[in-house]
## 1
Amino acid sequence: MAEDFDLESLIHVEQTFFDSGYQDGYDHGRIHGLIEGRALGREKGFEMWEELGYYEGFSLTWKATYAAQGRDDDRAANHIRHLLDLISKFPRVNPSASDTSSEMDIPKLFRQIRSRYKALCSTLGVQPSLRAAREGDSPREEHAPGVDDMENGSSNSVENRESSSETRRSELLRYACCQSYS
């Protein structure tokens, strides 16, 4: 009877239960970490692409405006070309962690795109902004200062930008007042 009972196994009982619990918790955390990480990645990826889509649409609109006016050698046209080129370099698929052939620095590229967008806005005399779309917003609210000046063929002088900026401020104030009462 004494041979059936092993005292040596009692010495490590606490460590055995600790190791078993640790392994169960690790496996459980790994599963839930993957699920949570995938959801967070999807959310952040959507936010990044929403911002890139805004920049691309903004650039294409101004590119079409400049093409209609025949102004291809302007500084703003150069910024538009560079911005669209940077956006086209942004990866369209999620790079695999095991794929070492793609050593793209996505945050650096994103910073370059934002910088080029701000430079373009500065050249055009437009206030740079990105506002996430909300349900019920109308396209009228997205009017940028300087658009009317470009479509009418007016020069993009400091006076035009200042008056356009003042007009934009008054439109925003009127809109904000109307929205607060509705």
## 2
Amino acid sequence: MLKTAPPLTGVRVLDLTRVLAGPYCSMILSDYGADTIKVESLVGDDTRAWGPPFAPNTIDKPGIRKESTYFLGINRNKRSISVDFKHSEGLKIIKKLAKDSDVLIENFIPGKLEKLGLGYDDLKIDNPGLIYTSITGYGPTGPNCEDAGYDVIIEAEAGLMHITGTKEAPVKVGVAITDITTGLYAHGAIMAALIARGKTGVGQKIDVSLLESQVSALANIAHAYLIGGVEPERLGTEHASIVPYQSFPTKDGQIVIGAGNDNQFLKFCEAIGRPDFAKDHMYASNQLRVKNRGSLIPKINDVLLKRSTNDWLKILKPTGLPCGPVNNISQTFSHPQVLHRTMVQEVEHPTAGRIKLVGIPVKYSLTKPTIRMPPPLLGQHTEDILKELNYSITEIDELKVANVVK
């Protein structure tokens, strides 16, 4: 019988990152089976304090703090060691961990780890197979390389905010999408580097930046400008090149319609009882609908306002037309398809009790990713990890007294 351990079982990841892009990347690798050691300062990842909301605390003991839901959402399947690696003894711990790791991920300002002797050129001497991944705001070189990288700043600077929102004002995306995109790019790059190492026998350094990730994610908007010379404008939920492809008000809420071609537009018009829209020469093709959206959209609005969202869904869904309600988060996590695809899972946390986490979005037929461990407490695995590095109990106690580890 074939063994079905997760695909990255046996891969060791040393995670020196904080906040979102790096931890999101390492969480994906962890879900895929990697043994991820999350290195935290003595006060912990910044996001542990990012709240409210916080998870409830089921343990009534002094010094047990509540964990933020932000931290809990992106740090499952990891072990935590709390160490001051600015201390010489702490630095030794990190170097020992790096020597035995397949992947290292960090998101410090360029040059900071090199000053501590933890740069790629330093660590590859003892571990030539190391895949060293640096996540930065703007990249390791160039005029802005030392600027701090924050999602909302990059959203603005890399054009995303300019194209998001209404004509009256730009808005940021509802989640830190630039951080998430960067984490996704980084995880894919690491996976490819692991395959490359299997062929060459050596690791390499990977640079991933928020700026470059977001510029790349501009997708068709970028090429409308680069190739077509078009400076895009904000259109709310509308699409620059497809009509109708947006949200519409109904009697009791909002519905999103996506008529991606002329046949779908015809089906839509017939379903809402206005086949004349499709026969009108002004709307006979997508190109004409884009040109004449100013007259078409108000006509569609007038029709859709006459019924509820659910009424329209019952009418439109059977036609095969892409459509859906604008759900709030509660509705999203009670969606029957979301539940069917196990996108809500529960784990037992040492202080918060039983908590719900977002499930793993990628399903494998054989080597299935799993949520094996809850997000760790700060330094929860410090002793275990140090013992794996052959530190004695006495040495570990001395490190604690000296405030090197926690």
## 3
Amino acid sequence: MPLYDCMLLLKPHVKEGLMDLVSRVGRHVYSRNGVLTEIKSFGTIQLGYGIKKLSGRYYQGQLMQMTMMATPNINKELQYLNKEDRLLRWLLVKHRDTKYGLEFLNEDDWELELSKLPRGNIYDDEDIDEDEDEDEYDENPENGGEH
């Protein structure tokens, strides 16, 4: 399943309906065997221009970002957001050239990537320095720290 970002710009006065709308989108994604991976709120933001709606013109909005793994037809399924009166705008962006989960493991290159990882013991005896470098630093301040 591809990864998507759904950006929601809500009216600035919407407080209690915010979580209702986010949970509604989340339930819709989950019912289609998708997964919400992250939800971010950017708070109230100033808009570069006013967005005109039936209830007036808005120069501020609450911005939310929902990252999800969903089926490719999620864009058509979220068209009901166009009729949502709490929203000023919404946008769905698909992440390109990213591979997750089984898509990554099915690639031929994954064995090559794993072979780059070290396989030896991380506690090799050769690398252990037990106070062998004590003579590197002169503790006598009169010499100016030189050897």
